[in-house]
Amino acid sequence: MINVAVIGAQGRMGTTVCSAVEDAPDMNLVARLDVGDTLDTGSLNGAEVAVDFTVPSVTEANVHAVLEAGVDVVVGTTGWNEETLAGVRTKAEETGRSVIIAPNYALSAVLVMSFAEKAAPYFESVEVIEMHHPDKVDAPSGTAKTTAQRVAAARGDLPESPDATETDPAGARGAKIDGVSVHAVRLRGLNAHEEVLLGNPGEQMVIRQDSFDRSSFMPGVLLAVRAVIGRGGLTYGLDEVMGI
Ligand SMILES: NC(=O)C1=CN([C@@H]2O[C@H](COP(=O)(O)OP(=O)(O)OC[C@H]3O[C@@H](n4cnc5c(N)ncnc54)[C@H](OP(=O)(O)O)[C@@H]3O)[C@@H](O)[C@H]2O)C=CC1
Ligand SMILES: O=C(O)C1=N[C@H](C(=O)O)C[C@H](O)C1
């Protein structure tokens, strides 16, 4: 049995993760932690793995505290950048622990990012649209940022998508992430959705995924909890864990 602690346990994702861990035949939920709880060996209560779904402003400090307490970490919280990822990689190496951080644990989203990366060099234009519930605090989504970064890297020296826009005072063309336009929609009724639009003269390809419900993230989260033990260092994204 794997002893698991959940940080952000009262949040939308945290409550879903607690239930998924309780229902998993090979896991024990040993701690539900939230705002104001110190993260140390006492509060982690024998956990081998801590799962963090909190907020971008606190997740980095949480991960460092958990690693210092000798516990491996699975992170779903967004807000990571190259610098904060490098800090976690170093801390994981220093403490001999393991961390998996993924912007999206839905298997469909992991595959969309992979397919988009593969397709990107074959199209003149690529744009990303992410659509979420209006209670989300960050925009664009971590998934959209990572998608755009992977698309841009896969396109290498190819020119950016053509765009004759000369005036856009209201930002209608979206955010540019590594030269790729990313558009964020916030709409009551939605949960988490992403489209990658790829265009060439006379043709279009749309790669889309829909997380209709937070249950969509649970197989990926449980997979990461099982995979993180003994893995070593930092793994970013679920691709390697899924073997794609
Ligand atoms: N990787 C993935 O697959 C997914 C990632 N996410 C990401 O996960 C994160 C959480 O999303 P969601 O559950 O919707 O957000 P919520 O706001 O519902 O949950 C966040 C929880 O973290 C708590 N929290 C805030 N600060 C701390 C702290 N210092 N220590 C412990 N707990 C704290 C909040 O408490 P309080 O409300 O009292 O402040 C709240 O209960 C976001 O970054 C989101 O983008 C979401 C879905 C899937
Ligand atoms: O806040 C959310 O809901 C989600 N956050 C993650 C992100 O920002 O990419 C993953 C998913 O999109 C749901």
From TrEMBL:
Catalytically driven reaction(s): (S)-2,3,4,5-tetrahydrodipicolinate + NAD(+) + H2O = (2S,4S)-4-hydroxy-2,3,4,5-tetrahydrodipicolinate + NADH + H(+); (S)-2,3,4,5-tetrahydrodipicolinate + NADP(+) + H2O = (2S,4S)-4-hydroxy-2,3,4,5-tetrahydrodipicolinate + NADPH + H(+)
Annotated residues for binding of NADP(+): 32
InterPro entries in the cross-refs: DapB_C, DapB_N, DapB_N_CS, DHDPR_bac, NAD(P)-bd_dom_sf
Binding site for (S)-2,3,4,5-tetrahydrodipicolinate: 133, 142-143
Lineage top rank: taxon: Bacteria
Subunit structure: Homotetramer.
Protein name, entry field: 4-hydroxy-tetrahydrodipicolinate reductase
Gene (UniProt): dapB
